[in-house]
Specification:
The complex is a heterodimer. Chain A is of the alpha+beta class. Helix content of chain A is 27%, strand content 24%. Chain A contains 14 helices and 20 strands. In chain A, helix 10 runs antiparallel to helix 11. Classes of the chains: A alpha+beta, B alpha/beta.
Chain lengths: 442, 262
């Protein structure tokens, strides 16, 4: 079926022929198409999961029975939401979760997603023991980090460009409850935040800070830092103690279909940020929160990306090494000066990088900011910030990208040539392409 | 591939020496993603001059292709579009056009028909071919330069106005036809623009520059209304003028022409 596809940011849509084969039919689809790409739940912000004029495999039928345990074999089209609903009641949690449960296993591998625990546990791909992938020649191979290390680490973080992953074996982590013990701290400026986050590295398995990008001057970087760990049964009381592993989150509201793009402006967003900062406690320790509250606060609002209206939005996410935290300050200053109506930005610490050739995380600081696409001068501003990021030895995240230049990307990903060598080997005719790969010459 | 912020990597300009067309190319190149431009037009010398002007604005591979196209000869239009789409095109601009000598056109029907070829028949032919290519690509933005003369032709420019009205009607219909296909048509209705085409004519109110038209195109390239006026205030003015009774409209135009001559 012909469909118009775009990423979560709803920018630069293109049309493709969308098919939804079962796992056993994927090889047939792959070999007869000139250009093909797998797409999960479309949570990449830019053009990673669309292919203009090509064929897109909707992975929703790539499913497996979900059997909870220390290692789970999971169909590539299963969402983390589905996995968690099956596994949490049996005491198993996913090794890594991004800020939404609505990503697929295939997408989590292709983007090598990270979560609030990266500084301790690394990326999703580091917990994948093996995956089955359909290659350009139609063959299905089971790849482990040792069976074909290059193909494994080109596929992990490889944005779907090496083949179609149909299922994966994922190592899970045991939990005693479906609750988190959360410590919340309000910080009045960026220096305090930097110090608090470095300290949190050593104590908390999960940590993240939300920064008010509209705050300026002395208050630049005012923020709320939350850290947490999986609550033991003994920490629970009341209803939670009676059913510690119960997990049945519901979506509360859906954003309206049509939103005027002027709804989000400096005043409305400023008011929201102020309210949100003031609602956070000055300091609170070991509060019991649900997994949803802690990990996926935005999943409560379905289709929240619509609030940016027709022009859409993008997320700018970069990482810079430890010594280069001044780039974070500079980026916040410039975004604040540009008066972008930006809801909270997210600041996180990363641990060391892995062997993924195009995997994003590397040790240091990562900042992620949602910005409406209609902001005047945004292209120049982000190009300028890219230059600072490159100069510091950092990079941007392909799963979020919809606008970086080819030249800049090559500087950010020095292992791009290794990645291309693997593609030359397994897909010499470039059957697997996306708008992203075409735009950036991947 | 065009990015989320409306910066294309490849552009086709039909009317490769048009002042407005080249201003649009320059504006689209300012985002520093544009690496390939195809200039299609009649005069090889003029096209080469335009190419030399465009090349330094581009990023690698800095490709400017010059292809011969004569809108009065459809075979050349077919060949030019095929050549341009040897590789994907992100944005195509239909900017070719002539301003007929109205008095001559009234006396010489052959001449009038020739200008209609350049202003209406040829651009629609090119536009149809481009729309088909864009549909196959699954994406693409077609910018069509119409004119306020398409909305309410005047006594002294209605041969031009009639052709632009035809092109405008085609482009608006095409925009509707292509909704949901990934292809967008942007119809641009400028008032009088200071270019080599209008050189020597008395300036109308709200006369503007090619750069202003280019900026408006860039601003509306990705989303928003599929028909725009430049300057924007012309939309209000024209919707008023369009509904004036003919005798009143004639008086408004002739009194303006009188004052322009003084």
């Amino acid at each position: 079926m012909e469909r118009l596809l775009s990423g979560w940011g709803r920018t630069a849509a293109s049309r493709a022929d969308v098919v939804a084969p079962r796992s056993s039919d994927v090889p047939d689809v792959v070999v007869i198409q000139e250009r093909v790409l797998a797409r999960g739940l479309g949570r990449s912000y830019g053009d990673a999961a669309q292919s203009a004029g090509g064929t897109v495999i909707d992975t929703s039928d790539l499913r497996t029975p979900l059997v909870p345990g220390p290692v789970m074999t999971i169909g590539a089209g299963e969402s983390l939401d589905a996995v968690m609903r099956a596994s949490i009641p049996k005491g198993w949690f996913v090794p890594v979760t991004p800020g939404t449960r609505y990503v697929t296993i295939g997408g989590a591998i292709a983007c090598d997603v990270h979560g609030k625990n990266h500084h301790v546990d690394g990326t999703f791909g580091q917990h994948v023991q093996s995956f089955d992938v359909v290659l350009a020649d139609g063959s299905t191979q089971t790849i482990t980090p040792t069976s074909d290390s290059d193909l494994f680490w080109a596929t992990v973080g490889g944005m779907g460009l090496t083949g179609v992953v149909t299922s994966a074996k994922v190592a899970m982590q045991p939990i005693e409850s479906a609750y988190m013990a959360v410590t919340t701290k309000r910080l009045d400026n960026l220096d305090d935040l930097f110090a608090a986050m470095v300290a949190a590295d050593r104590t908390a398995p999960y940590s993240v800070a939300w920064v008010d990008t509209l705050a300026k001057g002395q208050r630049l970087g005012r923020s709320v830092l939350t850290t947490g760990y999986h609550a033991p049964k003994s920490a629970l009381a009341g209803k939670a103690a009676q059913a510690p592993l119960q997990f049945a989150p519901r979506s509360l509201v859906t954003a309206p279909k049509i939103v005027p793009s002027m709804l989000l402006n400096k005043l409305s967003v400023g008011a929201f940020n102020e309210l949100w900062f003031r609602k956070a406690p000055q300091s609170r320790t070991d509060e019991i929160q649900s997994i949803t509250e802690f990990f996926h606060p935005l999943d409560g609002v379905q289709d929240w990306n619509r609030i940016y209206g027709a022009p859409g939005f993008l997320q700018y996410q970069f990482v810079v090494p430890d010594g280069a935290h001044e780039v974070v300050r500079y980026a916040l200053k410039r975004l604040s000066a540009a008066q972008c109506p930006v809801f909270l930005a997210v600041l996180k610490r990363f641990g060391p990088s892995n062997d993924g050739m195009l995997s994003f995380p590397s040790a240091g600081w990562t900042l992620a900011v949602d910005i409406p696409a209609r902001v005047p001068g945004l292209s120049e501003l982000l190009d300028h910030l890219d230059d600072r990021v490159v100069a510091a030895g950092g990079r941007i995240y392909l799963a979020k990208d919809s606008r970086v230049s080819r030249e800049t990307l090559q500087l950010m990903y020095p292992r791009l040539a290794d990645f291309q060598a693997v593609r030359d080997r397994v897909d010499p005719n470039r059957r697997f392409t996306s708008d992203l790969s075409e735009r950036l010459g991947l | 591939m065009i990015d989320a912020l409306g910066n294309p990597q490849s552009v086709l300009l039909v009317g490769g020496t048009s002042d407005i067309g080249l201003a649009i190319v320059a504006k689209l190149a300012a985002g520093k993603r544009l690496g390939r431009v195809v200039l299609a037009g009649r005069s090889a010398t003029d096209l080469e001059r335009a190419a030399a002007q465009v090349r330094p604005l581009l990023v690698a591979p800095q490709t400017v292709e010059v292809v011969s196209l004569d809108l009065t000869d459809v075979a050349t239009v077919d060949a030019a579009v095929s050549a341009a789409f040897a590789e994907p095109i992100d944005v195509a601009v239909l900017a070719a056009g002539v301003l007929p000598d109205q008095a001559r056109a009234l006396a010489d029907a052959d001449y009038a028909s020739l200008t209609n070829q350049v202003n209406f028949v040829g651009p629609v032919h090119a536009g149809l071919l481009i729309a088909k290519r864009f549909s196959q690509q699954g994406r693409g933005i077609l910018v069509v330069l119409s004119s306020v003369a398409a909305e309410r032709p005047r006594k002294d420019n209605f041969i031009y106005g009639a052709a632009k009205a035809g092109l405008d009607a085609w482009a608006n219909g095409m925009a509707d036809q292509l909704v949901g296909t990934g292809v967008r048509v942007l119809v641009v209705r400028p008032g009088m623009v200071r270019t080599k085409m209008s050189a020597g004519l008395p300036e109308a109110p709200m006369t503007t520059d090619a750069d202003v038209v280019a900026a408006a195109v860039a601003k509306h390239l990705m989303t928003g209304p599929s028909t725009i006026w430049v300057p924007a205030q012309l939309q209000v003015l024209m919707s008023g003028l369009r509904h004036l009774p003919r005798p009143v409209f004639r008086k408004v135009v002739s009194s303006r022409d009188e004052s322009a001559k003084k």
